[in-house]
């Protein structure tokens, strides 16, 4: 990974709620290299999807920067951002709600082309058919409606729509979590093939560790709007350092008979992200927490080889 | 010889290969598909037939009406159908309080009343729906302003508002129609706003934004298309309502004036003779009811058929 295509710096997104500020994304920084797949994992409500949406400016940010090829796109004017959108796209989680039920597959795929005026109305059918072939959707389905397709095909349509503009960067917001396992594999392979052929860069958001492990080069582990650990994907599974990551990995089921391993069971619930307390976000549920964890927020520090951890205990030892 | 399927090559045999045989764009004739689906709904077809009959009667009232709807004959006043048949006057549905043929008046009335329904619905739809969509889509202050104005309109009783408007613009059936049309705007605006709110937050609108679509495009190609179907049902419901409201206005002297064979006016005139000649109100009321029923059945069917998620 030579150059960074996307760099997120100190990104914050707070939502105003009735009893204060909801810290959905709190001071998050990471970078994605060209052609890389960065996995973003964390449990529900930890701000994964919010990050993806803020990067694409689908929701406004609170503070921070998102650099695309060195330029802060959060400062772009709306018109300039519209141009920019051609090179950054999104694949949505739910292929049932991300396609307009009243439009045919052909119309849905043609939309990005027409919006950006890339193709004339005459050529559009040919281009769409070409794209459909690339994404593995039959011509037959050109005039079908989304509800007539199964989940996997719908998700393919969503992917084709995102790729129609020939983008460089794609945010995949849990693209396979609503599909069953065999279809998941198909879609993941399609994504990987496309990445190879088109030189795409992915931000792959998921809560499914096995999926992330399969597709990512590096993984960011989030908890309550904060990054806990950033690390090469193999290294993360071999040597997780942050207590939260350890707990998370110990929850991955392993299909082996009579295999009893020590599971780390976390106590309590995820605390509310509204007006969080100072100190480490994970401290309340951490079985290793010391006094300092409740007082000072740990910084994300490199412990060697690009393995970054935000934990007082690890950083002290390392 | 054909290769045997063994445990070893089972997997190979079962590998799923998507064959792209006879893979051509399937052309769909959407009109034919609509009609095919519509025809299966017997009740909706019944509705369509009723509406069609009314439209035909309205168009060919000149040819179909057995009598002149304005010709009075006081010696034959207030004849019920049975009495008329007894005396052999030829008034199939009896006569009204001035001895005019009720059937002919109903036929001519179909013209006027159907225009009323059509125009009021058109005014409500064409002004109310865009207002509601804009309010729902852009939200914030614009929504506040539009919806509060609609609330003010709704707070007034419809008739009162219509009377107010006709007294400003002049008493005349045309103005009454416009006034009733304006009264229906808030209904359309509210319904379309509600629909828009749910569509605005949907993922496909977000996806369109991510693709670089401007608000105008999203409204036209994503919101409108989804808002229209609940409004179709509203339109048909409104049709009957508009006839009744206009009738009420005629009764109060601000709508259609007496000799005009407008259904509402006929209904309110007949009311005075309810005890002597109950058939005037009954028959007129039944005619209105049948038309409204037909429209509702038709509208319901239309909404169902227009939804592409419908199973063929």
Q: Characteristics of this structure?
A:
heterodimer, A: 318 residues, alpha/beta, Rossmann fold, 8-stranded mixed sheet, 4-stranded antiparallel sheet, 11 helices, 31% helix, globular, B: 312 residues, mainly alpha, MetI-like fold, 71% helix, 0% strand, flat
What can you tell me about this protein's structure?
The complex is a heterodimer of chains A (318) and B (312). Chain A contains 11 helices and 12 strands. Chain A is of the alpha/beta class. Chain A has a single domain (4-317), classed as Rossmann fold (3-Layer(aba) Sandwich), CATH 3.40.50. Chain A has an 8-stranded mixed β-sheet with strand order 6-7-8-3-9-10-12-11, sandwiched between helices. A 4-stranded antiparallel β-sheet of chain A has the order 2-1-4-5. In chain A, α3 (105-115) crosses α4 and α3 (105-115) packs parallel to α5 (151-163). The mean pLDDT of chain A is 87. Chain B is flat. In chain B, α6 (102-138) packs parallel to α9 (173-200), α8 (158-169) packs across α9 (173-200) and α12 (263-271) runs antiparallel to α13 (278-306). Chain B has a single domain (26-306), classed as MetI-like (MetI-like fold). Chain B is mostly helical. Helix content of chain B is 71%, strand content 0%. The A-B interface holds A 53, 56, 58, 82-83, 85-86, 89-90, 92-94, 97-103, 111-112, 115-116, 129, 136, 138-145, 147, 158, 161-162, 165 and B 18, 20, 23-28, 202-204, 206-214, 217, 221-222, 225-226, 307-309.
Question: The CATH topology of chain A, please?
Answer: Rossmann fold
Number of discrete domains of chain A: 1
- Total helices of chain B: the number is 13
Q: What is the H level of CATH, i.e. the homologous superfamily of chain B?
A: MetI-like
The end-to-end distance of chain B, rounded to whole angstroms, is 45 Å
- Mean pLDDT over the full residue set of chain B: 82
Low-confidence region ranges of chain A: none
Radius of gyration of chain A: 21 Å
**Tally of separate domains of chain B:** 1
Total strands of chain B: 0
For the record, the CATH class of chain A is Alpha Beta
Q: What fraction, in percent, of the residue positions of chain B are helical?
A: over 70%
Which structural class is indicated by helix and strand composition of chain B? Answer: mainly alpha
Please provide the ordered H/E string of secondary-structure elements of chain A.
EEEHEEHEHHHEHEHEEHHHEEH
The parts of chain B where pLDDT drops under 50 for at least 5 residues are 10-17
Instruction: Indicate the CATH topology of chain B.
Output: MetI-like fold
